[in-house]
Design a protein that fits this description.
single chain; binds zinc ion; TIM Barrel; globular; 17 helices; 415 residues; alpha/beta; 8-stranded parallel barrel; 2 domains
């Protein structure tokens, strides 16, 4: 199973927006952009919502059959490891092997020694075609990289082999992710990580590195755009070289996590993948849930009341809700409106504060991020919440489609 050049990961916490999400992908296709949808959901999300991987598969299948989508689509077991993968085996055909937690743990000494003996020839000057800069890899630098990453890739191999033994080798796409770490991987690290991936025969088709800067949930990239450009270009060229040098799948491409709402760097990514004729996978998730809340606010009446109730609930439970996401949100509590003030807002004002339109005078990224992590509050409301989604599916769906197409796909692909 070989994934297409352009793929877009959509997440759907409550599994009601599959058709609205697919509509955005279909709109892109009408404009000549062939993108395949990947429905992704992590174990953490499933636990908070109390949903199962089976429901993600059912949602994807249903959206595809109802809208008559005839191209490929995938269901991603997002950020899994050996302890969480089993529940996803029957329902996923894309597996994100998350090795971030294993980075920095050293492999066994004999494994390190034999890796160094086999690949010591790569020490010296590392020249990546297309990059002006050259990199000096001393023996001790290679040893350091091996100590830092070999164990993590061994773990990726174990997860991959486990999935393969259950599903067969050609029945799924494998991604290796290491985005949830503090520091971006250097070009030399990336080169040797790819060598390790090849060494363990993991036919990875996407790889998610860490980039410098903040990839906060639901808001724009915070960082230095030219540094991002540099790293993204380096990663593209290192992958291109490694694919040939190490016999990796020729369609191996970058995967950008927490990819929703990174409006300021989409044109950079779009320009560079065009320049080098490369594919890309962009993973988004919570941005759809926020559109549900916007849709409910606009629907008015009980739906607006519930949107306000969700905010008020999140406001009083900030510590609990923000805790698990501490490294991927930046909320200034002094800029959060008091629920009593929000109580007086009409639907339009609520939607404007929440909707991600950079520069809009009423847009409030603090409000937006708090609701982003507040999906647990809606999950606890159960069918009271999802019944309103059903009742207002038209206006909610419109928000979801517009958000993915106009604000994401258009910016990324320059449609
Ligand atoms: Zn990730």
């Amino acid at each position: 199973m070989k994934i297409e050049k352009y793929s877009f990961g959509v997440g759907d916490r409550f599994a009601h927006q599959g058709e609205a999400q697919l509509s955005a992908i279909m709109k892109a296709k009408e404009q000549g952009y062939n993108i395949v949808p990947v429905w992704n959901k992590s174990n953490r999300e499933h636990q908070i919502i109390h949903s199962t991987p089976e429901s993600t598969r059912a949602e994807a299948d249903q959206a595809v059959s109802r809208l008559g989508w005839t191209d490929r689509y995938y269901v991603d077991a997002d950020h899994i490891n050996l302890s969480t993968v089993d529940n996803f085996l029957d329902h996923s055909d894309f597996f994100t092997l998350d090795v971030a937690d294993y980075i920095g743990q050293p492999a066994g000494q004999s494994d390190i020694d034999s890796f160094l003996a086999e690949y010591g020839r790569y020490t010296g000057e590392l020249k990546i075609p297309g990059l002006d800069e050259t990199f000096q890899v001393s023996r001790s630098a290679l040893e350091k990289i091996t100590r830092k990453f070999l164990y993590a890739i061994q773990e990726a191999s174990k997860i991959y082999e486990h999935i393969k033994s259950k599903k067969g080798p050609e029945s799924f796409v494998a991604e290796v992710s290491m985005d949830e770490v503090k520091e971006a991987q250097t070009p030399a690290e990336m080169f040797f990580i790819l060598l390790m991936i090849s060494h363990f025969n993991i036919p990875a088709q996407t790889i998610a590195p860490k980039f410098t800067g903040r990839f906060n949930k639901g808001v724009d990239y915070v960082g230095n755009n030219s540094q991002f450009r540099k790293e993204f270009e380096q990663d593209l060229l290192v992958i291109d070289y490694a694919v040939k040098e190490f016999n990796l799948p020729e369609n191996l491409k970058l995967s950008v996590h927490s990819g929703s709402d990174k409006f300021s760097i989409y044109p950079v990514m779009g320009e560079l993948i065009k320049k080098y004729d490369k594919g890309i996978h962009v993973k988004t998730a919570g941005t759809t849930w926020l559109e549900e809340v916007i849709g409910l606010a606009l629907a008015g009446g009980d739906a607006l009341k519930m949107a306000k109730e969700i905010y008020a609930g999140a406001f009083t439970r900030q510590d609990e809700l923000c805790g698990p996401y501490a490294t991927v949100i930046d909320i200034d509590p002094y800029k959060l409106p008091e629920p009593s003030a929000v109580e007086k807002w009409d639907g339009e004002k609520f939607a404007n504060a929440l909707r991600h339109i950079p520069g809009h005078p009423e847009y409030n990224p603090n409000f937006r991020q708090l609701i982003h992590v507040g999906y647990k509050v809606a999950a606890e409301l159960g069918t009271a919440y999802t019944d309103l989604l059903k009742k207002h599916h038209e206006i909610v769906g419109e928000q979801v489609t517009t958000n993915i197409y106009d604000r994401h796909i258009s910016r990324l692909f320059g449609v």
